Amino acid sequence: MTNIPAIYQGKLNTLDQIMVSPLSRAYTFSDSIYEVIPYFSGKPLCFKEHFDRLIQSSNLMGLNVNFEVVADDIKELAANLINQDGYIYYQISRGLDVVRSHMYQEDLEIERFGYAMPTSFPTSAISAMLCEDDRWGKCNIKSTSLLANVLAMNKAKSLGCQEVVMHRDGFMTEAGASNVFYFDSTGLVRTSSISENILPGVTRSIVIEALKDTPYSVKEGSCSISDFNDSPCIWLTSSTKGILPLNTLVGTDYKPEENYQGYLDVAELFNSAMQSHLSASE
Fold it and tell me: Can you name the residues that pair with 33 across neighbouring β-strands?
């Protein structure tokens, strides 16, 4: 991690050289938000949508952020991803307390931190585990408070899985770090409606828009996990996964149909839409 470009309070450095106070409210209370912006050959995918979501999370948290400064930070980090695939992680916390206290001071200086990570994005099918969604009730805020996700995903890891698919009272919410789509037994594409229990994924929106006015138009709503047993294909969407099909969903009778034409068509429509978005960012 010694050569990863990073920024803290506007000062560029390498990730291993950045030091954060233990009294940062990001550390003591997870009183912080974050965003992940993917880059392909140095071009951001849906930068505005990611930036707008960061602003929305900030507003929901009551953070008083100078987003012109944030944009400058991200621009400086992005200069390190020229002609590369990767992502920018950017985090905003309420600031540093003099003394740890649930009730924060009104004059705290907003704390800004981010880094640029070159990487290759996954393309192969993965496995997931079905589990109860026991997260807090405002998952529409992209908060760093992810303990429930961490515990669930590491339980899944112990079973050889790379993700979880969560549900409440038998109805799908989302995955640990992704949104979830699937074909039901009639061939209809389904996903959960956006609510406080679900993060409004940027890649999710790309998929829904790409499939509009096609035979695969998405039906949003309440999705019973019993649908998984007869689904020919379930897939996940996120900024770092793009779209990835599931080959296993532990806890269900899901048996994916190999080379399912519906999913192949959806993937082609998504990839075309993604290229259009990338071209628009030039």
Answer: 92, 143
Chain mean pLDDT for the chain: 96
Q: What confidence score (pLDDT) does residue 258 get?
A: 92
Q: Which domains, and CATH codes, for the chain?
A: 5-118 (3.30.470.10), 126-280 (3.20.10.10)
Q: Where are the alpha helices (DSSP H) in 98-201?
A: 147-158
Q: In the numeric block, which tokens belong to residue 164?
A: 């979880």
Q: How far apart are CA 60 and CA 51, in angstroms?
A: 14
Tokens describing residue 240 = 């770092």
Within 10 Å of residue 276's Cβ, how many Cβ atoms?
11
Sheet-wide strand order for 126-132:
171-175, 163-168, 126-132, 242-250, 234-238, 179-183, 189-192, 218-221
pLDDT tops 90 at residue 196: no
Which among 64, 54, 74 has a CA at the least distance from the CA of 5?
74
Nearest to 248 by CA among 264, 262, 234: 234
- For residue 161 the two structure tokens come to 């899985």
For 155-182, write each residue's pLDDT tens digit. Answer: 999 999 999 999 999 999 999 999 999 9
Q: From CA 282, how far away is CA 278, in angstroms rounded?
A: 7
Beta bridge partners of 248: 127
Q: Render pLDDT for 10-21 as a digit per residue (tens, 0 to 9).
A: 999 999 999 999
**Nearest CA among 242, 266, 209 for reference residue 39:** 242
Contact 200, 167 (CB under 8 A): no
